[in-house]
Amino acid sequence: MKATVDWTGNASFRATSGSGHSVQMDGPPDHGGENLGPRPMEMLLMGVGGCSAFDVMSILKKSRQDVTACHTELEAERADAVPAVFTKIHLHFVVTGHNLKEKQVERAVSLSAEKYCSASIMLGKAGVEITHSHEIRATE
Known about the structure:
Layout: E1 3-9, E2 12-17, E3 22-26, H1 40-62, E4 66-78, E5 86-98, H2 102-116, H3 118-125, E6 129-138
Parallel strand pairs: 5-6
Antiparallel strand pairs: 1-2, 2-3, 4-5
Organism: Marinobacter nauticus (Marinobacter hydrocarbonoclasticus)
Region (Disordered): 1-35
Pfam family, one: OsmC
């Protein structure tokens, strides 16, 4: 896996993945940025959410659950000192669908957390406290 990051002026950077997709990152105005894109640490948090949501959906599809939506809410805390690393991350999955089985959703979230989500497992090994929760909503 490869990626590039190019400075585009002030506190702004364009990151490009090896697969050719780009995203603009920027710093806050009080650090020379223009708020043109997410902060790099926000990208890291979003990456954890995307990695885990991908796993959860893949597992639920394989278990033949009729999912119509999966919404992941992430909340993180950072250290007060430099480096301001993540100290806690909580992922809350809101899974919507027809006749979803509690055990299947719980299993999907657990498997992602304990076995499949490389991003959250890596951060957990670095000392970040990572927790998960979920809720099921029925499609009307």
